[in-house]
Design brief:
The structure holds 2 protein chains of 2 kinds.
Chain A (H helix, E strand, L loop, with lengths): L3 E3 L4 E4 L4 E7 L6 E7 L6 E6 L4 E3 L2 E6 L4 E6 L8 E10 L3 E5 L3 E6 L1
Chain B lengths: L4 E3 L2 E4 L5 E6 L6 E8 L3 E9 L2 E4 L8 E7 L2 E6 L8 E8 L8 E2 L3 E5 L1
Parallel strand pairs in B: 2-11
Antiparallel strand pairs in B: 1-3, 3-8, 4-5, 4-9, 5-6, 7-8, 9-10, 9-11
Classes of the chains: A mainly beta, B mainly beta.
């Protein structure tokens, strides 16, 4: 089993739609979680951190379920500019701090 | 804040040549990461430094790859000799404390080996 797995995608949704991405992680000792966004031919950029209580930033909501070892990202009222690849990132505390990126899920928002 | 600075942005070289990629992390960050990204394999961690010391180099493909961090403000990734299968985008990222701090990526170096 891979350390971090994501919905394979691609997701093609119309403007205004609500879309949700899930990410599962295998190490129960994982301590920090993030969602990154990567545009085509650009570097990954932090979208938002994921807190245990869940957090919201405008149209974006992230949630963490430690018992089931998954995190989610909900995008409401999708915009064309939301088209990108969304990467789930998990920090593990092993003998050192290990940062693990998921394979990413591609989103295309269609006019 | 200038962000993570990588150079060059693009590199085209012939098979067998030495390639050196450079990275300047964000000032004050104590962790530096080198990643490689291809369509087929996605984002792969090559090596991770903490306080200039290599902590995890298990992702370095083979002996042709080497990385150094002589000081807190500079790192290099060297490929010698280069091969066509090394063609990819190489990203450098830095972080203050990985455990609770997100990574900040540079713009990447797009390497093409012919």
């Amino acid at each position: 089993r891979k350390e971090v797995e994501q919905d394979p995608g691609p997701f093609n949704v119309p403007e205004g739609a609500t879309v949700a991405f899930n990410c599962t992680y295998s190490n129960s000792a994982s301590q920090s979680f993030f969602w990154y966004r990567q545009d085509c031919r650009k570097e990954p950029k932090l979208l938002m951190s994921v807190y245990s209580s869940g957090n919201e930033d405008g149209r974006f909501t992230a949630q963490l379920n430690r018992a089931s070892q998954y995190i989610s990202l909900l995008i409401r009222d999708s915009k064309l500019s939301d088209s990108a690849t969304y990467l789930c990132v998990v920090n593990e505390k092993t003998s050192y701090d290990k940062v693990i990126f998921g394979p990413g899920t591609s989103l295309s928002v269609i006019p | 804040d200038a962000g993570v600075i990588q150079s060059p942005r693009h590199e085209v070289t012939e098979m067998g040549q030495e390639v050196t990629l450079r990275c300047k992390p964000i000032s004050g960050h104590n962790s530096l990461f080198w990643y490689r990204q291809t369509m087929m394999r996605g984002l792969e961690l090559l090596i991770y430094f903490n306080n200039n010391v290599p902590i995890d180099d298990s992702g370095m493909p083979e002996d042709r790859f080497s990385a150094k961090m002589p000081n807190a403000s500079f790192s290099t990734l060297k490929i010698q000799p280069s091969e066509p299968r090394d063609s990819a985008v190489y990203f450098c990222a830095s972080s203050l404390i990985p455990q609770a701090s997100p990574l900040h990526f540079g713009n990447g170096t797009r390497l093409t080996v012919t």
